[in-house]
Design goal:
The complex is a heterotrimer of chains A (324), B (342) and C (289). With 324 residues, chain A is of the alpha/beta class. Chain A has eleven helices and twelve strands. In chain B, strand 1 (14-25) and strand 2 form a beta hairpin. The radius of gyration of chain B is 21 Å and the shape is globular. Bound molecules: adenosine-5'-triphosphate, iron/sulfur cluster (2 copies) and magnesium ion.
């Protein structure tokens, strides 16, 4: 997937190569992410979609080295994060940020909003109090909150949407280059969801961010992404530019995800008998193509051979035997 | 599609008359539901749509008589000719299961974590239908199979935490359906689930509802969920119903600006990436501080001085069977959502 | 541009400021603790008689103008003995849980945050401490090192460590899973900063409530030790030893045992009430809804 070597500016900001992350679960090994490779260019938004438990969050956290990968490399702006230790990694963190699904749980209930947003500055050694205050005010106004009104308050005084704004402010106060958004709108109502999606787009423009945007809803991903990666049971299925993926999904699983979106239009009958069932346990993934147990197009070869990722036209890539 | 549910076609199974729910809070009385009228005929599906905190859950609790102890209920909940609000606990208990059943957002809260799935289904069947253990086990296995659970015999012996969220919700539905209720209330049954699982669960509910000729109330915050699966939709805002119409009519011609805004805020599959979504600014008003005028006025782009001063009533001036509460209803057929963005 | 949504919310948020509805019971409890505390601190300068002066002619006297609460079996002034007794009961009662809470909180937070071998070691150590029969331990220590206030405080304090460790560990364990802790790690915060800034404020309040409970328990334990003659040796008064001595004359002068028991009961009750109320008040979420 990663682009060919070339001048520095062409290099992706983030590149993940053959990343594998495993958990030990009751004596067994659960492979949450297996052999995933992707690249995110500077200023790009890559959407990452998949059902619950497919390893999206694990991948996001492994990029930040919050979970140490079992194998593979994560390279950020030419530096191999997987090789960084202790203090070097700690210093690197200010350039990479994370926004969580549950905005209320990701704020310390006993610290004031001003404190929470200033914390990254303190950690990264901004000693000047006036400077810190100025930057906290700036970023709070940028995310649409009135600094004077919110600074002294505690998180429980805010709604989910506002807490997400605060989380975004905290992630942006250090002016990072890459922000990983782990289902930032899944816990929010439709109306608030649109506000937050718009805000993220705004912030991306304003701060020149690169985003890895994780979600389980393709419609949400479409609104913000340049390219979309689809994941199933720890594997990548398809990586395509957004327009093309929605116009013509290459992988049967992508097609399933698209069909499942409830359309706000009563004249379109909702799809019935969608690929039955749920993903198998990641503790014992099926052999061959991991999707074959639910795939309407499964063939014999699918049950035996794991399809490799192969490039298609138009910058797409897909892992499916239909394209052999 | 048939006409208005509240019409005289068939006597309503459920009719909610002037129901209001008040809760005491540290900041004063909170009117969670304010004078709601609804009717639902047997075998029909009603969708209730609204943002979190608009009172949908309290309304469903009022219908089910499952309100918190300190809550005060006004109005009548007529179900099969009886006012549920006046029933004693014992008669209510006997209604639950064979008449009234409920599926909650988080199946973990409605399933008992220390009992096997089987025990919970069997107990329900024994308690309400007086089945013996063997028949109940057989029936329970059939029910699990009917809601699409593979290897149901094995699942009967498992505990809720051993199942995925989607499977748990299927079990909760199986239990709710076990006594063939006449009315099923599903309160955000798929909000905690993936889109794919959501589609399957909604499918399952629709299928079982038709097969059993059961009435259903489907509560959600997503207009997309009700679009293909309900006969009628009621949109709630700040404790009141602000628009109600047969589903096709609602989507073809919405009158209330709030409904329109709610629809516009959904990310569309056919719009280009990076198009700004027409978000609804702000958030719903504080329910302990009701506004004098239309509750949506602070967020409404059509609001004027009248809207801030006087509360519009839920009325149906054209006798279209589609009442709405707005001083300046949107006129004409809706052409495109994106065109309506500010 | 993002919409400024806070405007409409100011009204929503500002009146939430917690209404401190403190019951009369809470105020009474605080008043009792303050009264006893002040009396104990100021015992030396209060115009009361010596707690150890014998007056063999006025033994077991009922309350009178000379002795407001009467005298004990050796003719010593009861009021004065109760006040000096409070000194010992409160000193031990407050200091012992301080030892328990400070060591227990550190151990528990370290165990809950770092997990792994450190946790196994701490939990193991705490279990060993728990396995010690407390009375035997107290007896051994006081017999060996002497029955001084300091030794008694140390013994009870050490015996309290396991309970505080367990509370701190349990709270830390559940908090460490929370996303705000992961968020701090993602920001590059050091472990010590996470422990002090993110976890401690959240662990502290449950511990303070538990601490006040600990004070109540310690007062009872100290009383029990003194009652059994393992406490501060006579003639220094302590509520426990006074109950023990008064027991002999229950039939003729019941107030000798009853008064210190009442003082102990009221103090224990007061600490419990204050602990419960503080916990409810300091919960950052608004009351029930
Ligand atoms: N700390 C952990 N220990 C053991 N297993 C874990 C742990 N965290 C995640 N897993 C497992 O790893 C797999 C991938 O989990 P992950 O959280 O990355 O999925 P996800 O795609 O983000 O799911 P969701 O949509 O539910 O957030 C799942 O099977 C999950 O149960
Ligand atoms: S490889 Fe086979 S089973 Fe897998 S997605 Fe393609 S067709 Fe389906
Ligand atoms: S009454 Fe006025 S404020 Fe309310 S929805 Fe209608 S136009 Fe908007
Ligand atoms: Mg996740």
């Amino acid at each position: 997937m990663s682009g060919p070597g070339g001048p520095r500016s062409d290099e992706p900001l983030l590149s993940v190569q053959h990343l594998t992350v495993e958990y030990a679960v009751g004596g067994k090994t659960l492979s949450a992410v297996s052999d995933v490779s992707l690249a995110v260019g500077r200023g790009e938004t890559l959407g990452l979609v998949g059902e619950s438990g497919c390893g999206k969050s694990t991948l996001g956290r492994a990029v930040l080295q919050l979970n140490r990968p079992t194998a593979g490399k994560v390279t950020f702006d030419g530096t191999e994060l997987t090789k960084l230790e202790g203090e070097a990694m700690r210093l690197m963190r200010r350039r990479l940020q994370l926004i969580f699904q549950d905005p209320i749980a990701s704020l310390n209930p006993r610290r004031s909003i001003g404190d929470i947003v200033a914390e990254p500055l303190i950690i990264s050694g901004v000693k000047d109090k006036a400077e810190r205050e100025r930057r906290v005010r700036d970023v709070l106004s940028a995310v649409g909150l009135d600094p004077d009104q919110v600074r002294g308050r505690l998180p429980h005084e805010f709604s989910g949407g506002q807490c997400q704004r605060i989380c975004i402010a905290r992630a942006l106060v250090l002016e990072p280059e890459l922000v990983i958004c782990d289902e930032p709108v899944s816990a929010l109502d439709v109306s608030i969801r649109a506000q937050i999606l718009n805000l993220l787009e705004d912030m991306k423009r304003r701060y020149g961010l690169t985003l890895l945007f994780i979600a389980h809803d393709l419609a949400v991903v479409k609104a913000v992404s340049d390219r979309v990666a689809v994941m199933y049971l720890g594997r990548l299925c398809e990586v395509s530019p957004t327009e093309q993926l929605f116009a013509k999904p290459a992988h049967p699983y992508t097609a399933l995800l698209l069909e499942a979106i409830p359309l706000p239009d009563p004249t379109v009958k909702p799809a019935t008998n969608l690929a039955v069932g749920e993903p198998p346990s990641p503790l014992s993934p099926p052999p061959g193509c991991r999707f074959h147990t639910r795939c309407p197009k499964a063939m014999d070869v699918c049950r035996q051979v794991d399809p490799p990722m192969r490039p298609l036209d138009g910058g797409r890539a897909v892992a499916c035997h239909l394209y052999d | 599609m048939s006409g208005v549910v509240s019409g005289a076609v068939s006597a309503p199974l459920l009719s909610v008359e002037g129901v209001a729910v008040e809760l005491p809070t540290p900041r004063g009385r909170l009117r969670a539901v304010d004078k709601v009228d609804l009717a639902l005929a047997p075998g029909r599906t009603l969708g209730i749509v609204g943002e979190s905190g608009c009172g949908k859950t309290m309304l469903s609790r009022a219908i089910l008589q499952l309100l918190p102890k300190r809550a005060r209920l006004e109005g009548r909940v007529m179900f099969g000719g009886r006012d549920l609000a006046t029933l004693d606990p014992e008669s209510l208990r006997r209604l639950r299961g064979p008449e009234l059943a409920v599926v909650f957002q988080d199946p973990m809260t409605s399933l008992n974590p220390v009992l096997t799935i089987g025990t919970q289904i069997i107990e329900t069947l024994q308690a309400h239908l007086g089945m013996d253990a063997t028949t109940a086990f057989k029936r329970g296995t059939e029910l699990l199979a009917a809601v699409g659970i593979p290897a149901p015999g094995q699942r009967m012996r498992q505990y809720p935490h051993q199942l995925s969220g989607g499977m748990r919700q299927r079990v909760a539905i199986a239990i709710a359906l076990s006594c063939e209720p006449k009315l099923l209330v599903a309160d955000e049954p798929t909000t905690a689930l993936d889109v794919t699982v959501q589609a399957q669960i909604l499918d399952l509910l629709a299928r079982e509802q038709q097969r059993r000729h059961m009435a259903m109330i489907l509560i959600t915050h997503d207009l997309g969920v009700v679009a293909g699966r309900t006969d009628e939709v009621a949109v709630m805002y700040a404790g009141r119903i602000v628009e109600r119409a047969p589903t096709p009519a609602l989507f073809a011609r919405m009158r209330m600006p709030y409904t329109e805004a709610l629809l516009a805020a959904i990310p569309k599959l056919d719009s280009a990436p990076h198009t700004a979504l027409p978000a609804i600014p702000g958030r719903p008003p504080d329910p302990t501080r009701p506004l004098p005028g239309c509750s949506f006025a602070p967020r409404c782009r059509y609001a004027d001085e009248l809207c801030g001063r006087a509360k519009p009533a839920l009325e149906d001036p054209d006798d279209a069977g589609a009442p709405y509460a707005c001083w300046h209803p949107i006129s004409g057929a809706r052409t495109s959502w994106s065109a309506s963005s500010p | 541009m993002a919409v400024l949504e806070i405007e409409g919310d100011t009204a929503l948020v500002s009146p939430v400021r917690k209404r401190h509805r403190l019951g009369g019971l809470f105020l009474a409890a605080v008043a009792w603790i303050v009264l006893i505390g002040l009396a104990a601190i100021l015992a030396g300068v209060l115009p009361i008689q010596s707690p150890t002066d014998l007056d063999m002619l006025a033994r077991r006297e009922p309350p009178s103008a000379a002795h407001w609460l009467g005298t004990d079996q050796l003719g010593r002034d009861m009021l004065s003995r109760l006040i000096y007794g409070a000194r010992i009961s409160l000193t031990v009662g407050l200091l012992a849980p301080v030892i328990g809470v400070s060591i227990g909180a550190c151990l528990g937070m370290l165990a809950g945050y770092f997990r792994g071998r450190l946790e196994a070691f701490i939990v193991g150590g705490v279990d060993v401490l728990l396995a010690f029969p407390p009375l035997v331990f107290a007896l051994a220590v006081t017999a060996y090192l002497g029955q001084t206030v300091l030794n008694i405080t140390l013994v009870i304090g050490i015996l309290g460590i396991p309970a505080f460790t367990r509370v701190a560990r349990a709270v830390t364990l559940s908090l460490s899973q929370r996303e705000f802790v992961v968020a701090a790690r993602a920001l590059g915060a050091t472990d010590s900063r996470i422990l002090v800034r993110e976890l401690l404020p959240n662990v502290a309040l449950p511990l303070v409530a538990f601490f006040l409970l600990g004070v109540a328990v310690t007062i009872v334990v100290e009383g029990a030790l003194s009652f059994l003659g393992l406490g501060v040796p006579p003639p220094a008064p302590s509520w426990g030893s006074m109950i023990g001595e008064g027991r002999e004359s229950l039939d003729i002068a019941p107030w000798l045992a009853f008064l210190p028991a009442l003082f102990m009961f009221l103090s224990v009750l007061s600490f419990n009430i204050v602990g419960d109320t503080l916990r409810a008040l300091t919960d950052p979420r608004p009351g029930a809804l």
